[in-house]
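Notebook entry, structure prediction.
Reason for the run: the old model in the group folder had no record of what sequence produced it. Starting over properly, with the input documented here first.
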Amino acid sequence: MTAAGVGYCAAVVLAALFATASIAKLRDLPATLTQFTDLGLPRPGVFTRIVPLAELALVTLLLVVPAVGAIFALVTLAFFTTFLVGRVRAGITAPCACFGATVSTPLSRVDIVRNLMLMALAGLVLMATRPIAPAPLDLLAIGIVIAVGAGLLAVLRRR
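New structure, fully documented this time:
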């Protein structure tokens, strides 16, 4: 197991999540616009087009130059999370729109915790300076991290 291998595995996972989020938004732009509007996002029409494209750019960065992609992912997730904190504090319960219209659960603190976990995953990506073939233990380590994170989110969603 190597730090770079774990970091690149984290980059691939994060890239897959951003790709999923982007494609979900692009598949149904009218629904994305509605969700962004319901969240109170300023200029939702502009963000409906920009956010999915920015997420696709992040996918490329994470896979090609992972450490640079990690920095941009951290900044992007910080902006998203700050916005979500404001919405939760304002009592907004519209779906978070993080994964487009595929998710209809009301916005909650769980979405904030999820984003903080994704930021931690982006922190792991900083260990990868270039794409590399991961060792089996690298894959196992990231698999454990994902399983623990998913388990924690499942427990929090039940509360």
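Summary: Helices lie at 3-27, 29-38, 44-64, 66-89, 109-125, 136-158.
The old model has been moved to the deprecated folder.
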